Task: inverse folding
């Protein structure tokens, strides 16, 4: 990838990729690192880009892989930490209280509690605005699996989000929050 | 089209990606089915709600200038062939082996780590916050690391398949 191309791509897509990475990993510092690594990977492997998708979709696919690696590494660290915690404190399997200060933070918090597979389809669908067949192509799964994951992911969000906000009901949630 | 068939195509109906004939069949079904119309409204509201809230949650985020510069520097370094600073000989590849490798690099200099082409495993470079973590990849015969500023750095190697030396 030529320096000129990178000079155009970073301003064009850097912030958008960062926001998507943040939605996927929930940590700004990590999201910054993931976007940096995604561009560096793209520079190294641009010869693999065959033009079958948009350049943004290709960059986002690299970003998704790096985010998955972030979660794998983080899981190992958390697991080690949990072993220590269990030695010293009583076990509590129930989820902790959500930050209900705003609906936005509640959604971000709920996203972080989903499995990676469920979080990915929600972000691709509702943040990236991808169609079902585009998500299927991006994740390398069938359209039926995408729809199934969306169905269960939305069900999980309903369980995780505070019931009084009724975010997934048919009423106007903007009005509810103003009341 | 009955309710079961419509529900299977709900997402595609809302996003408008059904074929013309399927879209028409779905529209005919909707005209007489209050339950499915309700499902369409819920999906549309959910999409609007999630999209606006996720956008709002992240709209203040921007890529840090130092990261922008690092990406641009890397692309410029990539466009010219890296010069090999030094080769590493007889580096042990036992697990958790760390080797401190010097001297400090000048900006723009590169180091190339060579190792057996049949190796599988991972290499981890880290230097003052810059990192290349190559876990999970299958290498050919080298990786290259380019510095953006004077620094010394560490190389950790964990090549799990072969016990021969990195060369």
Result:
């Amino acid at each position: 990838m030529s320096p000129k191309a990178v000079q155009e791509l970073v301003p064009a897509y850097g912030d958008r990729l960062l926001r998507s990475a943040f939605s996927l990993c929930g940590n700004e510092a990590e999201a910054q690192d993931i976007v940096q690594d995604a561009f560096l990977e793209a520079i190294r492997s641009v010869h693999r880009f065959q033009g079958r998708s948009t350049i943004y979709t290709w960059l986002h696919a690299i970003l998704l892989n790096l985010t998955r690696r972030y979660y794998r590494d983080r899981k190992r660290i958390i697991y080690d930490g949990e072993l220590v915690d269990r030695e010293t404190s009583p076990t509590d399997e129930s989820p902790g209280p959500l930050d209900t200060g705003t609906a936005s933070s509640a959604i971000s918090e709920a996203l972080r509690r989903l499995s990676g597979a469920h979080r990915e389809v929600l972000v691709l669908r509702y943040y990236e605005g991808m169609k079902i067949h585009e998500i299927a192509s991006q994740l390398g799964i069938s359209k039926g699996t995408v729809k199934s994951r969306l169905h269960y992911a939305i069900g999980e969000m309903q369980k995780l989000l505070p019931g009084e906000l009724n975010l997934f009901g048919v009423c106007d949630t903007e009005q509810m929050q103003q009341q | 089209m009955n309710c079961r068939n419509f529900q299977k195509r709900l997402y595609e109906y809302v996003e408008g990606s059904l074929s013309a004939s399927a879209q028409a069949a779905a529209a005919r079904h909707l005209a007489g089915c209050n339950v499915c119309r309700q499902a369409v409204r819920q999906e549309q509201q959910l999409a609007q709600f999630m999209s606006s809230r996720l956008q709002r949650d992240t709209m203040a985020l921007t890529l840090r200038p130092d990261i922008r510069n690092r990406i641009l520097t890397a692309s410029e370094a990539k466009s010219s062939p890296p010069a090999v600073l030094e080769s590493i000989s007889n580096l042990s590849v036992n697990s958790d082996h760390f080797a401190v490798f010097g001297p400090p690099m000048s900006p723009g200099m590169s180091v190339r780590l060579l190792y057996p082409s049949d190796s599988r495993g991972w290499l981890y470079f880290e230097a003052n916050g810059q990192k290349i973590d190559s876990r999970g990849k299958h290498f050919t015969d080298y990786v290259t690391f380019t510095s953006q500023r004077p620094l010394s750095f560490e190389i950790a190697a964990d090549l799990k398949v072969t016990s021969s030396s990195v060369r």
